[in-house]
Design goal:
301 residues, alpha/beta, UDP-N-acetylmuramoyl-L-alanine:D-glutamate ligase, two-stranded antiparallel ribbon
Length: 301
């Protein structure tokens, strides 16, 4: 049985040898913030898939089952939190739903944080038949979900054209049983900022402005979900403070990553290898983010 004082996370995500996405993006911040993290890597790739050459291996469903069986047989399958990100197939996602149910037999109070990674900017980068599994099987099991606007629209069949539309999408996800719904980014801002929205079922709803950076980062969604998990635990589910701390950490890391990359590449597009998130160098920001952007309460009518 685990120590009662230390929260324990099982994180099932992708893994890269170089760079920071999936588990590489989630584990270090969680550990720095005081969590024990056990991880299962759904893929092991040389780099994230935005690079020119992709090499590596994919964990097969029977291999995943074997790992879970080993944890269970050794009675080390007690977790306070369960975190999932990118899943490559409907079958692997159904398997994850089974794992959640199994873990909840050991700890009925287990908190499941689901980042339903399906796409962005109107494009799906997973098979289309993953969508109904997220929508109908996985999301109803989640305590916290952190989709971007596009993913939230996919799961509800609703469009976010304004704040009212965003709140309708959030309510539709609450109606599926999710306690905390976080739209990690929406297009409701302007050229300089995005808007993030977090809502608790039957409780408060907050929006926060997220400054845009002149670069595309990979792994920020994975980092967002891990940070939101950590801070919701550390603040005893204070959703306003959790959103503020999460965004403060992300902004600090993204800003530093951008500035260092720009110093090396003053003009033009920044190469992918220079824009890998600088997590290790920003350990102090992860531990103690300074909140400069406040979340503002919005009402659901």
């Amino acid at each position: 049985m685990a120590s009662v004082n230390t929260p324990r996370v099982l994180s099932i995500q992708s893994h890269v040898v170089h760079g920071y996405v999936g588990n590489k993006s989630a584990i270090f911040p969680l550990q720095v913030l005081g969590f024990e993290v056990d991880s299962i890597n759904t893929v092991q790739f040389s780099t994230h898939t935005g690079y020119k050459h992709i090499k590596g291996t994919i964990l097969q469903n029977e291999e995943m089952a074997e790992l879970i069986e080993g944890l269970t047989l050794n009675e080390v399958d007690y977790y306070t939190h369960f975190l999932t990100g990118y899943s490559r197939s409907p079958d692997s996602l159904k398997q994850i739903a089974g794992i959640i149910k199994k873990l909840r037999e050991k700890n009925p109070a287990l908190i499941y944080v689901c980042d339903p990674v399906m796409g962005d900017n109107g494009q799906m980068y997973v098979p289309a038949d993953i969508l109904p599994v997220y929508r109908d099987v996985v999301v109803p099991l989640a305590d916290i979900i952190t989709p971007n606007q596009f993913e939230a629209e996919l799961m509800t069949g609703l469009k976010v054209k304004d704040l009212k539309g965003a709140l309708e999408v959030i309510q539709a996800l609450h109606d599926k049983g999710v306690k905390t719904v976080v739209l990690s980014s929406t297009d409701l801002g302007d050229d300089t900022k995005m808007i993030g929205i977090a809502s608790t079922k039957g409780g408060s709803c907050y929006q926060i402005q997220i400054p845009k950076m002149d670069a595309t980062y990979t792994g920020t969604g994975d980092l967002f979900a891990a940070l939101f998990l950590a801070w919701s635990h550390k603040t005893n589910n204070d959703i306003k403070l959790t959103l503020e701390k999460t965004i403060a950490t992300l902004q600090g890391i993204v800003k530093d990553t951008y500035q260092k990359a720009r110093a090396l590449q003053p003009e033009g597009e920044i190469p992918k290898a220079l824009i890998e998130l600088r997590l290790i160098q920003n350990k102090t920001i992860i531990e103690n983010p300074v909140v400069e952007i406040k979340a503002v309460e919005i009402t659901i009518n």
